[in-house]
Amino acid sequence: MFTIYQRELKSYFTQPTAYAVICIFLFMSLFLTFTLGSFIQIGDANLEWSFFFWHPWIFMLLAPALGMRLWSDEQRSGTIELLGTFPTTIWSAIVGKYLAAATVWLVALLLTCPMVMAVNTLGDPDNLTIFSGYIGSYLVCCSFLAITCLISAFTRDQVSCLIISCSICVLLVIIGFRNIETEIARNFSSATTDAIVSTSVLNHLQPLLRGSIRIQDLTYFGSIIAACLVCTSAILNAKRA
Amino acid sequence: MSTKVTHPNRRAILGIIAVILIVIFANWLMSSTSLGNRNLDLTEDKRHTLTEGTKAILSELDTPVIIRYYATRKSEMMPRQLKNYMRKVDDLLNRYRNLSKGQIIIEHLDPQPDTDAEDSANLDGISGQRINDENLYFGLSISSLNQKSAIPYLDPNDETMLEYHLSSAIANVTSFKKTRVGLMTTLPMAGSPAQMPGQQPQQPWIMYQLLEQRYELQNLGMTPADLNPEDTPVILLVHPAGITPETEYTLDQYLLKGGIIIACIDPYAITAPQGNPMMGAMGGGGVPKSSHLPTLLQAWGIGMDSTHVIADGKYASDFGENRRMYAHLNLSQEAITDKDEITTRNFESLYLPLAGGLTLNENKGLNVETLVKSSNEVILVTAQSAGNPDPGLFTRSQPTGKSYGLLMRLQGSFPSAFPDGKPGNEQSADTKAEAEGDKTLAENASSGLKKAEKPGTVYLISDADFLFDVACFQSSPQGHIAVNNNAALIENILDQCTGSKHLIGARSRAATMRPFTVVKEMETQFAKELREDVEKAQQEMQDIVTQLQQLQSQKSQGKQLVLSPEQELKIIELQEKEIQLRRELRDKQKSLRSRKDALYAKITRLTVAVTPAFVALLGLAVWLIRRKTTRAL
């Protein structure tokens, strides 16, 4: 697993793709913070609304862009068959490849450190709450990456994988919005509405952005990631058989 | 024996369905049980954790408390914001119940129209909110035996105060009688009978009447023999002018037993009754204007100059017609040191006329907090000179440059201010005891407490007049309207002190905004510079006006309506000065704006551009190297 992880990570950083994705992420997140996030105008050293608020929106587009080649590429080029001959299990390959992609996103998030330095220069922020925000943001990203990983196991076509993954991620984000919730509430019973709304990423991200790491939120993100990886394994095993 | 071989695709589908079911079950389990709500609170002020005060109140509960939780759940019209907040309230109530060891019973009620639950909500004082043409309920009724309290509407915008309100309500319903507040004052707060036949009796102060409605107010006089926190949990001490060492000793002993004292001491109490020289011989002496607690304050490490009051350049009151009174402090939100402090929360203004300045001279192991303070543009002036407007005060004298406490809270195990026992007794009793060899007498002489039995609390306010009618209220046909937060201040302090002791010092759980301090400092400095410039220019303009008046007075009777050339020159000079002042102010404002813009531009540039550019360059380099290597191959 570690060998696959290393090989994948190396391939990300020896090709311009990872740099492009990181660069776009950095620019978009910081640009949105200073424009729509009104960081300067509001003058608040908390990063919850001005900075972290935009992350799910960026991740729902960029995480599938980075993850779409995870298995689609292997299936298209036929290297998945070759992988079957290696003395390793499919599960190790899935985890190794997934962790490598997740590491790229970790680097991307760490590179937003100038934002933390800026708030510490301008004011007196609660740095542990910011750290908790980073954990939340990273968990959202990893969840979207896991969903992309699962979709890429279904299809050989990277574009299809990108479109489907993006759609699912968009759905998970927007059902947390009040207008969408109202619409759901008009068509479904209260219990069903609550169940649908509880799948929203935003509802589970918000406590983390406010410095509270709850077991139910960790379960939510952890279960999405684990389930997607297990399902990816089931699909790839079925395909190999 | 045959083995059933499942098709790989079917196996995968079954596996995926099983995983999805497990995920749904795990998430349902976590969101519906208290385990899922357990959290790691990373916030600096532990915003998501119950306070120690709440935990202490719940652990001390010895009678059942019933919380009727009215929430309209089966309505599609309930806004999502309220539904989300409902989950938080559910979670908080569960935590309360878990900590109360079965003493808290929660009854969930969903008041639908024309149901018993709706009637019960109305009886409990829970008001329905008209939202989207429907009457929706979302409130709490807290009761224990025959005591009842209600939070009529749980406002999501007041989320930060929810825990405090709930804990306070629980503490109130479990205490069974009106709390007794002991009043010690030399001011005529309770009114006075007519001095002469035909005269009107003096009405009690409005503040006194309000306190009398809410508490069992007991006038203790200025020389109570003994005070016990069990009988009188709180003492309101207002302007203790001429306090005797014996009374200070009584207060000291009371504090060492865990009492709470709210002391309003004043270097110059305007409301202190004047002595009647005509009745001097008949006991018509007034009350000294200055009050102090000389021994107690020294023992607590607190200082206050009882002969001088604070003149504050920033919080001066404007009485119109250029009558700027520096010693009449009109304090804005900026004077509140902690925005989350419950006693001063959401305060807009406080008015303290001729207040003294409190300082912490020495830390005596107490937890001392300054809740309201002056600015650092302060000059200490004598009360006699402070009573009149003095526009030139800040040009003649240099401010001290330090801010003074106006409201302080002291908590902890107080040291005794009378380590040698009751004043006046020690020597005589010791001598007697020595002479008579009576051990019991010697012990009695020093029988008072030397150190605190329980932690006590003192609120120190450096003014007493702020409680007087005109300082807090305005009369109107509808009754007395509070003109500032003076009344709210004393009510909040008393609420905290008479509620559970565990709530003293509680803070709202505000998701406080953390403003850019660097910019704030820049703006404060600018405002200070600006004020100095304006004052200087105004002084210069005033000088020109004076010169103009002098020129006018020198003219002969017939020529008074015609301007002399010197006067014309002075008028032009005055106009030029005014234009110059405006220009300077404009330039200064521009300069501050450009300084702020430069700082923001630098931060924006460094944050938005540097890292993406660095990553882009790195990516470009990798691409070029890769291209070169591929070509070489």
Automatic annotation (TrEMBL), chain A:
InterPro entries: ABC-2_transporter_component. It is found in: Cell membrane. One of its GO terms (cellular component) is plasma membrane. Keywords: Cell membrane, Membrane, Transmembrane, Transmembrane helix. It is a multi-pass membrane protein. The chain crosses the membrane at residues 20-40, 52-71, 98-119, 131-154, 161-180, 218-238. GO terms for molecular function: ABC-type transporter activity. Pfam families: ABC2_membrane_2 (PF12679). This is ABC transporter permease subunit. It comes from Oceaniferula marina. The lineage of its organism: Bacteria, Pseudomonadati, Verrucomicrobiota, Verrucomicrobiia, Verrucomicrobiales.
From TrEMBL, chain B:
Keywords: Coiled coil, Membrane, Transmembrane, Transmembrane helix. The keyword Cell membrane does not apply. Residues 416-448 are annotated as: Disordered. Residues 44-136 form the DUF7088 domain. Residues 429-441 have a biased composition (Basic and acidic residues). The keyword Ion transport does not apply. Residues 520-602 form a coiled coil. InterPro entries: ABC_transp_unknown, DUF7088. The chain crosses the membrane at residues 12-30, 603-625. Residues 178-473 form the ABC-type uncharacterised transport system domain. It comes from the Bacteria. This is Gldg family protein. It comes from Oceaniferula marina.
